[in-house]
Q: What sequence folds into this?
């Protein structure tokens, strides 16, 4: 079967493309923005990528179109269709479906689905859980909203009965406004956390809680729900109805909790010490992610102590505090990281985790320079702009790429005073950061998009300025 995927470079749709290719289908796809790491992964599999949504792609005559939720019936200012290909599909009466629906019917049916839901940590926790099951010899399939370093790909069919999936609450498609995750029918469900997000489709937190409750309704009585015991919002969801076994994590009274620092801690179940985890990840959020993954894997018979041994070798996910390069300035290293954080809470936990790690590993902790763009739909709408100063508290300096925002970023960041800078182009942003950077700094670039290749541009600019400084020495 020939499948043509609209919105193929999104993390979910790109993973779906990988699964379809592994299942033996011919796969092509299109997107408005093609950027790594997904574009690299797809091209390496021989999947043809087409830029844009031109109606001429109807000439490919695929057997089925799989439509991502980025596609809609929008019109441009001149009245023309924003997605001409979708209009052509509708006019022709061609076969089309959503990504989650295709996945449910062609991949998940008949398998033990382990779904990881929540506002934050879905990608990392999904990757952790898949790695634990892999290390236990269960050969799981998985679909992760990123590229786990241990696997090198974002998705695979797997040969075992288990399938681990990142379960997103965002809507399915323009013709199916249910949350994606209601299609997955999990037998094991992780609820990592729950905050307000996706302001473009949800009115308030209660509306999101309602979708999470719909998800709970799909878990069988023989299933397991693993919930963060620190989250009041999840408590409200559980009180709406629970028909499955419940395991909690995080709080001191939870079934699973931790003692120690996030990079070195003991895992406890019902107050009994099970194993000690020493690994390279930082931040209390990753400690919670680990507890959730261990509790979920136990449902498939993996002992937590075995899970801890697997996590000791877990190498995280690309774009999660991924070190992109180091440049010397003043004979000291300047490190540039790439991170996917885009919600204020995620930004704060990422920077707090780095701050704690620097305090533990550096005699004189280096400065943190936070470089970010409010790119998510919620941030573009300004729904959480008031939380930005709070989220950036751990950084010595903050640099915001304001781009085409319709709200005043400088005003929102005013509580940070001289610690904040605002740029309206990537060139201006790179110049600001390079002017401020000094030896020993840690530059953290945070965005849920390609961010204009700012990571490599910073490394190149910093390297060039360092070379110029060396040439200027007598």
A:
């Amino acid at each position: 079967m020939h499948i043509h995927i609209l919105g193929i470079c999104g993390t979910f749709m790109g993973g779906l493309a990988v699964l379809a290719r592994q299942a033996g289908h011919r796969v092509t796809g299109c997107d408005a923005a093609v950027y790594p790491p997904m574009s690299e992964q797809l091209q390496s599999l021989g999947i043809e990528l087409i830029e844009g949504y031109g109606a001429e792609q109807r000439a490919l005559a695929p057997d089925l179109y799989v439509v991502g939720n980025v596609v809609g019936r929008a019109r441009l200012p001149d009245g023309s269709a924003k997605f001409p290909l979708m209009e052509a599909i509708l006019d022709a009466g061609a076969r089309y479906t959503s990504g989650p629906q295709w996945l449910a019917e062609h991949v998940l049916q008949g398998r033990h689905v382990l779904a990881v839901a929540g506002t934050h940590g879905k990608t990392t926790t999904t990757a952790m859980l898949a790695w634990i099951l892999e290390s236990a010899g269960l050969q799981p399939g998985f679909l992760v909203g990123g590229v786990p370093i241990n696997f090198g790909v974002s998705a695979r069919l797997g040969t075992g009965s288990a399938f681990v999936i990142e379960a997103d609450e965002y809507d399915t498609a323009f013709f199916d406004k249910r949350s994606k995750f209601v299609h997955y029918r999990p037998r094991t469900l992780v609820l990592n956390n729950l905050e307000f997000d996706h302001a473009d489709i949800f009115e308030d937190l209660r509306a999101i809680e309602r979708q999470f409750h719909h998800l709970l309704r799909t878990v069988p009585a023989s299933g397991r729900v693993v919930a963060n015991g620190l989250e009041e919002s999840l408590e409200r969801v559980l009180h709406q109805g629970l028909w499955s076994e419940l395991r909690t994590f995080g709080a001191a009274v939870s079934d699973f909790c931790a003692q120690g620092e996030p990079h070195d801690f003991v895992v406890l179940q019902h107050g009994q010490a099970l194993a000690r985890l020493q690994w390279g990840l930082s931040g209390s959020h990753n400690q919670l992610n680990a507890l959730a993954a261990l509790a979920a894997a136990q449902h498939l018979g993996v002992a937590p102590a075995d899970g801890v041994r697997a996590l000791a070798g877990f190498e995280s996910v690309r774009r999660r505090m991924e070190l992109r390069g180091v440049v010397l300035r003043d004979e000291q290293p300047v490190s540039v990281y790439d991170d996917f954080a885009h919600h204020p809470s995620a930004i704060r936990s990422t920077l707090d985790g780095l701050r704690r790690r620097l305090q533990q590993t550096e005699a004189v902790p280096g400065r943190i320079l936070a470089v970010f763009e409010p790119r998510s739909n919620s941030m573009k709408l300004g729904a959480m702009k008031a939380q930005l100063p709070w989220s950036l508290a751990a950084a010595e300096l903050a640099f915001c790429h304001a781009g085409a925002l319709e709200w005043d970023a400088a005003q929102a960041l005013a509580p940070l005073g001289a610690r904040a800078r605002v740029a309206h182009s990537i060139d201006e942003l790179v110049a600001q950061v390079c002017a401020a950077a000094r030896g020993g700094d840690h530059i953290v670039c945070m965005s849920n998009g390609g961010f204009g290749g700012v990571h490599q541009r910073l490394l190149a600019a910093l390297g060039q300025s360092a070379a110029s400084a060396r040439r200027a020495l007598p």
Notes: The longest helix spans residues 454-472. Confidence is low (pLDDT under 50) at residues 468-474. Residues 2-100 form a domain with the Rossmann fold fold (CATH 3.40.50.720).
